[in-house]
Amino acid sequence: FLSKYEDTVDWNGNRILCHDLPGRGIFGWMYPTYLASLKGFEETHSPDAVMFLRFLRSQAYMFVVLSLGTAVLLMPVYATGPNKNLPPDNPQYVTGINIVSIANLQPADNRLWATLIAEFFSALIVYYYTYIDYKAYVRIRRRYKTKCIPSNFSVVLTEIPEGSRNEKAITDYFDKISAGCVAEVQKVLNCGHAQSKIGKYMKEVKAGEIAEYKRENKKKIGPEGPTEKVKNKETGKKETVLSIPYHRNNCAKLERKILQEQEERDPGVMRTTLSAIVLFKSSVTCSVIQQLTIWKTTSTWRIEPGIDAGAVNWRKLYVSYKSRAAITVIGNITIVLITVFWGLVIVAIQALGNLENLANVPAFSFLNGVVDTWSPLLLAFVQGVLPPLILILLLRLIPFTMRQIILRQKIYSLARVECKLRNYFYVFLIFSNFIYVVISGTILQQLDVILANPSLLVQQLATGIPQQAVFMMNYVLLNGLFGYPLLVLDPGRVITRWIIFAFGGGKTERGLRFADRMFANFFFFKFYALSMLFTLLGTVYTTMAPLINVFTALYFLIGYYCCKFKIMYTSYHQYNPLKGYWQYGGIMHEGCFTGLLAAMLIHQVSMVIVFGIYQAAAQAIIEAVFIAMTAYYIGFVKNKFADLSQNGSLVEIIGSNEAKEVQDSFFSKYTHPGLQPPTPG
Known about the structure:
Layout: H1 30-35, H2 41-44, H3 47-73, H4 75-79, H5 112-146, E1 154-158, H6 167-175, E2 182-190, H7 192-217, E3 227-231, E4 238-242, H8 243-264, E5 271-280, H9 283-290, E6 302-304, H10 322-352, H11 355-359, H12 368-371, H13 376-395, H14 398-407, H15 414-445, H16 447-452, H17 457-467, H18 469-489, H19 491-502, H20 509-517, H21 524-540, H22 548-570, H23 588-613, H24 617-647, H25 650-655
Helix pairs in contact: 3-5, 3-21, 3-22, 5-23, 5-24, 7-8, 10-13, 10-15, 13-18, 14-15, 15-17, 15-21, 18-22, 21-22, 21-23, 23-24
């Protein structure tokens, strides 16, 4: 539960009340979580929590409606298809769940008109739920832009010309736009040297605290405290010293050096960069300036909208705009290579799920001796359950790698880093968990047919798309039944805490806070990307294999309550700025809207291909019209709301009851970490 060591406050220091703890017992969390309303979450848990939970809830509603619609319209139609009556050795033969999918139909079957009708109504349902979510997102963003918070009074100014990299020149520059509008200009200095010393200072503080803990709690240690061997710089030999005074003296020496360096600000040590942070006297003036293009080229006097004070990516403010393209290209190429080579992993996983089919191919006949010795239960587990589980575990390695790549790109806001990470991870998931799965699964299932006649490869891939629905249903169901409940149990956090305490950590108050925070953040980028993936899987197969709608609705229903519990009770949400936390301001949802409609486009393109393979030319042409309809809808929503969601409404900012004048407490919020006095807090 939320740490007793940390208060949650807003920017002005006002305490934000947390929810009462739920009842004890295995199921004690369920009813309080169910009763909790999202009203007020915007203030207590940030706009991002509200939008993410709204997104999960609306997706659950959407797939419930799709489940009911397709159950009435499509499943009875598909069940009457002829392919279930074909001989089992026929490539078009279907059984089990595939009987109520499009795979049960023959080419040029009149039943495909029912599929087209369902396509139209499914598109309308997707448009409706994405639209109401986006409107809610815009409302939250408008309110956020009226709040009295530092990001609504500041801009990040980059690519400042060489002759203007001082406070007076920057102030004079903005005075030409609005006289006397600037409250403060903070030049961004390269303080890496001071930061490294602060890191050493904190290391000495922690060592001293551990030594004090040992003196108080270890009976064998005397009142003077523990000792340790250190190297004498003059003699080069090790000598025994008392730990507590040794670390205290080191802290005092480092503190003096840090304060001296911060006071002198030697240009040779703290170099001036191309950037500055400008704080304005009025949020109204700041809002106007944030929306301006004030220079004739994009590589000079660049204005970046205000960044939450705890989310400034300081190191990237040192990088010039010219180097941005090269760094971005290299990062993108690296991620593309990761995505491409991931296909080999997917092939191996799909091979594990198709052992029986591989055993029938002469080149893999040796598998017969293995498969025949297994019990039906073991074979079902290895082919049906094990591949999705392996996929889930391996996917946990990807976000860390992508984050390291994106952090090296020129992105000034850590919130924008998270947004880009969400986008990259989502695209990766589309390839790894959909495209590669469809291709490799179909090839492995029909390998003998393709090897006998390679010209049938394209046709087999197209007809195999709906047949992969069984794997997709297993994957969605397993993530719903196991993935989200594991989020509630939080085994990673429990095991990590045990390891920390088992190896002597968590003894001091600082150690307890560290142990309490491990794996305690709610990673919106990850859960957005995964949820968008399952929306894609459900959307792609919504009319091809309608039963997947039921599983997807169940996934989002379980996900909504598990994530709601996690956000309410067990996460350190990134909201508390006075403790170094930050928030996204809801911006994660904007990319989510685009990703969901991209899933709809992928579905519609897939249906054009499927209709073509099924020799349903009229349906394919009409489906192409639906693609144009989706593209128009995306443009309509973006044109209507994009600027409003980015900048808010100037009329609302002027008419807001929030304070419109900069607060005294804001001036210290954008101080570079290397210029902040060292404190053991």
